[in-house]
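OP here, attaching both records as promised.
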Amino acid sequence: MTEFWLISAPGEKTCQQTWDKMMAATTRANNLSTNHKFNIPDLKVGTLDVLVGLSDELAKLDSFVESVVKKVAQYMADVLEDSRDKVQENLLANGVDLITYITRFQWDMAKYPIKQSLKNISEIISKQITQIDNDLKTRASAYNNLKGNLQNLERKNAGSLLTRSLGDIVKKDDFVLDSEYLITVLVVVPKTSYSDWEKTYETLAEMVVPRSSHLLCEDNDSGLYGVTLFRKAIDDFKHKARENKFTVRDFQYNEEEMKADKEEMTRLSTDKKKQFGPLVRWLKVNFSEAFIAWIHIKALRVFVESVLRYGLPVNFQAMLLQPNKKTMKKLREVLNDLYKHLDSSAAAIIDSAMDIPGLNLSQQEYYPYVYYKIDCNLLDFKA
């Protein structure tokens, strides 16, 4: 399971007792979850007004930072293309996998000094993540343009003879060049119509050079023929060819253009390779930064909400539960029994909801204890 429940409950005589009680209810008797203490340092409380305002701001910031974390992770998967199985090993926080980082969470004093007010810490995070979001847009746009242009060129050089670029198929010897009167045209003929072509091409228009048809290449369905005729007969030839289901490709042999296309493709391919390494490094570093910031916001939210709910002096135990998938409903019931005395109105809502299947309690789940979900499944792989 990559889902965690970050909860808090007020300290009994000591915070250790709160922890022991929760452990006894969720693991010793019934193994409902794997639990860890979640260490939140002594942050500056500030005034009640500030805490109430900050509670709303942190909820918005939490959503924003989570969206940026997911964007960076998803873009990493897009950039790694064929190596998507390697994505997870690149999504690290502080050099360790995400579950290890969360379960061993330590507040980063250097990045987010606790001598600062809660509001200042949230503003530091907000600025940092906005910068990452803006940088991602810029870098992704540049890389996607490059990738798109390269794909367009590659697409032109792939596909069927009816649509693909012919520059890398034909040779100079296949054409009558620099003639005032004669021109070589390229015609795509379905394989099933080869004999029809051989019988009729010389009569599709006047002034087709006899026995000038030659097969240049084939794909699964068709063959590409070159045929020489007088320039003034070309419109008539195209029209008659179309009637016979032969397709005349609009192509002029131009060595300069073909060379330029090849060079452009080489340049784009080289540029993409050059940008790939630095881009993946940037994504790894900034994914880590954004994820760390996100878990710090969760810690801030637990702190603020616990003070607002349980009052002063600050006395609560933050706990991280990793539920077992099959016992999530049971775990929720056990926690509600354990903590329903904290908030009778929340307990009443939950009891009534349990009687009405399918009732959604609202967007934000509310329980008698402080609760936030952390979902580490950040990738939305498109099939």
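Record two, same layout:
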Amino acid sequence: MERGKSWSDDGYELNRRGTGVFHPHIKLTDIVDKENNHIPIDRILPDDLQEKIIASLPLECILKASCVCKKWNEIVHSKKFMLNISNALAQKPWYFMFTSSDEPIGYFYDPLLSKWYSSELPCSVKHNYYIASSCGLVCFMDNYSRNELYVCNPLTRNYKKLELLGQPFLGYTALAFSVDWPSHSYTVAIVGSEHVFDDEWAISIHIYTSNKMIWLSPMKKTLTRWRAGYDSIICDGVLYVLVYYTGTDETEDHHALLTYNLYTPSFQDMSISTRVPVPCFVTCGRLLNLDDKLVMVGGIGRQDRPGIIKGICIWVLKGRELEEVSRVPYKLFQGFGEIDDVFASSGAGDLIYVQSYGATALLVFDMTLRQWSWSRKCPVIKKFSLQLFSGFCFQPRLELSS
């Protein structure tokens, strides 16, 4: 197989698009070496034993094994194998790092094996898309026209394009995504915030459910001196939206969380009177769902110099308060080099990833161990000073499809 066309940890050319994982046009053949009288393995081992052998492999080896022959490809893609392997595999959340702004190519990072694998996404998304992930599926929405919406499994390369509403989303937009594990159905929420008059902002929430395959009637509300931003999350049936104060009162909170119950909405939803205050001036705030716990990552900003941050902090929502969990140690924070308020952060399970847009350095925080560490160095090389990178965290699962 040609270099760059396999899903491996070998080198990768950024100007080429590899076949990636489970490419739909990959040609699989059973090869028998008649000259040396090699006998196909399925003539020796029954199917159930082959399944057990493949299932005992690490996930990245299972993915490679599916490309060996037709028989193994059928085993790996069978519903029986998918369900069995989901219970057997204990995987840490992976990270996909975009290495190009023009094509969906990049590297997967497996924290268990501390290895990077070159690959590409199945749909034509870019590193600056709105991205939200849940339980192995990832949702993408384009940043410019905001009329392209995809849901995909990055490992199996299965994806679906969703039809958006007729009107474009103007102003500030945030994307949230949640998968219901028992039913494998998912919910997409798009939060729009548009300036209407003086200090008034119109907030709208649009909900899509995969089991009904329809967009529900949007919730609309007008807020005074508060607007939504670019970040929201669905956690335990509640949509959380990070909002920003646009007034001039210095004693007011600069940031806060508003809530919207997806199952039993009430008049108190998205109300400033019931907001959850953010404990300090935050830049580049990101909301994460870690095992149905709301976690916020943000740069600790300076009010006098809003483009500079003095640290990165993690908070967990407990009741109606955000409680500080950890801060990036100063030595690790310095490892990013010169950093302003622009960095990416995402997480799942018990891991949080933090990455500067201007570098490939990836910082990992283990919520269980309360430990910070660097990932293994990504093999991609920065080719010019203004080259940007980004990425997202997801749970590696084979059995989920869009």
